[in-house]
Amino acid sequence: MKRAVVLLSGGLDSVTALAMAREQGFECYTLSFNYGQRHHAELNAAKSLSGQNGAVAHKFIDIDLSAIGGSALTDQSIALPEQYEEAIPVTYVPARNTVFLSIALGWAEVLSAQAIFVGVNAVDYSGYPDCRPEFIAAFEQLANVATKAGVEGQKMTIHAPLMRMTKADIIQEGTRLGIDYSQTISCYQADSDGRACGKCDSCRFRQRGFKQAGLEDPTRYIK
Amino acid sequence: MKRAVVLLSGGLDSVTALAMAREQGFECYTLSFNYGQRHHAELNAAKSLSGQNGAVAHKFIDIDLSAIGGSALTDQSIALPEQYEEAIPVTYVPARNTVFLSIALGWAEVLSAQAIFVGVNAVDYSGYPDCRPEFIAAFEQLANVATKAGVEGQKMTIHAPLMRMTKADIIQEGTRLGIDYSQTISCYQADSDGRACGKCDSCRFRQRGFKQAGLEDPTRYIK
Predict the structure, then answer these.
(1) Nearest by CB: A142 against B96, B142, B148
(2) Which residues pair with B58 in a beta bridge?
(3) What is the ipTM of this complex?
(4) Would the pLDDT of A118 be above 80?
(5) Would you tell me which residues 105-124 of chain A have a C-beta closer than 8 angstroms to some C-beta of chain B?
(6) pTM
(7) Looking at A57-133, which runs of residues are DSSP E strands?
(8) Which phi and psi (to 5°) does residue A210 adopt?
(9) A-chain residues near B68 (CB < 8 A)
(10) In chain B, which among 140-179 make CB contacts under 8 A with chain A?
(11) Beta carbons of A102 and B99 less than 8 Å apart
């Protein structure tokens, strides 16, 4: 059976990527990172969502990206924005997806997996450079020269199935695949029970997605 | 002043790369990883060597690559080889250099550095795929699409100044630049005092390097 490593944050996008990988016939191994982000509710969600959506194993990796700083997501002294920013926002974590995909690549090699799935999106993507198609293409090229498996001729493919989808498309596809989105956490500052702020960029993209999909928003919000 | 992040393991190669970066006029920020390797002596060495060789700051990052397994360097149940292997050896750590360079890239972006130095070598390289020129070229291409700095037109260069040098060349160059190699640890299984086994691949490449360079080997060995 073909195998994939799936990056799973506990948010709406990555669990949809997991369900799509399963539908494509992959045996899925999910990977989540404790990287110094503001809250842990999304990590708890990731673990539950992994099992609920058919992954065969789930792994956490600790890596302290707050040690290098430079982002409102890992540095409590930088305020989160509540207005949409045209430029790349302060929630950008330097090289985050590069680091996450690199570790996924290592695990994929150990598992003899042929694929990595990542839920990045270039439509409603908040302006992050490492969510663009040219980034995914460059990482795939790197992956195929970086490993023993690659040198031995085993091709690695990086799948970003949400790349061209709107948030509404993603929600409709995931709903069709049976995902319970009330379990997912997208908010940058969810409370310890996993309830969302309703104000940050990530909350606002998500709210608009449910509205445009014509579906009820199941998110639990802080009152 | 131009800035560089320099990957520093505590071994002979990476400290030579640091000295070469300094000679090229870079202000150097050194980065070391506690990644579940067999011993910590090389991390202690990295910290001392950083200051002795003119870096302005040194940072440790913890990342537990033993969680993904697949290498004799991070999995104590896999024996270290004492014979040279033609194939890629069991000391290969899946995607290690990809992970290390990714984190260096994040720090470089925070520092507004234009360069990353890494002491990889394709001559006496033990057969690791992520020590080849095509790997470095692919990572540089990735680096320039992965970050906010890259999107904004700031070019990042990955320097691998040891790539085409033999171990003897490296030792001669580092000696010219004033490095005290008795402080460096290359051994895969050094003891807690940093004394080398003299038997592993890494020790044997190093011994041969000093011999071919016509210099006395200052390494402290386990009796």
Answers:
(1) B142
(2) B30
(3) 0.89
(4) yes
(5) 105-107, 109-110
(6) 0.90
(7) 57-62, 115-117
(8) -65, -40
(9) 59, 61, 103, 106-107, 110
(10) 141-143, 145-148, 150-151
(11) yes
pLDDT band at A77 (very low <50, low <70, confident <90, very high): low
Q: Rounded to the nearest 5 degrees, what angle is found at the Cα of A55, between the Cα atoms of A51 and A58?
A: 75
Q: Which amino acid would we find at residue A43?
A: L
Most confident of A170-174, B90-94, B108-112, B145-149: A170-174
String of b and e for A159-170 (b: at least 16 CB within 10 Å)?
Answer: bbbbbebbbbbb
Give residues with Cβ within 8 angstroms of B83, minimum separation 6.
Answer: none
Cβ distance B70 to A106 less than 8 Å, yes or no, reads yes
pLDDT band, residue A91 (cuts 50/70/90): low
Sort A178 into a burial class: Cβ within 10 Å, 0-12 / 13-18 / 19+.
exposed
Say how far apart CA B135 and CA B137 lie, in whole Å. 5
Q: How far is CA B203 from the centre of its chain?
A: 15
User: What structural domains does chain B harbor?
Assistant: 3-180 (3.40.50.620)
Supply angle C-alpha A57, B129, B72, rounded to 5: 55
Closest by Cβ to A59, choosing from B67, B101, B151: B67
The pLDDT tens digits for B134-177 are 999 999 999 999 988 888 888 999 999 999 999 999 999 999 99
